[in-house]
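From the thread on structure requests for the teaching lab: each student submitted one protein with a one-line request. Submission from student K.M.:

"Model HMA domain-containing protein from Paradesertivirga mongoliensis, tokens only."
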Amino acid sequence: MNILVFKTSITAEEEIVKVQPLLDSVPTIKHWNFDLDDCDNILRIVSNNLDPESIESMLQTAGFDCRELAD
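Reply posted by the TA:
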């Protein structure tokens, strides 16, 4: 399992509800969560064989900034 960490522009629970169906539709995602208390509005994803660019693109298509944070 890998943990991917992304900085996002998502700042509210209502916005999480908008992206929930997108994240839930990816079969390789085992678990995901947002940390809105973090200054970078972190999205953490636990997955196998997931391309970070696909998540970035998915959230950007939904209208949110998203980029992977380096280790």
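TA comment: The radius of gyration is 11 Å. Residues 10 and 41 are 6 Å apart (CA to CA).
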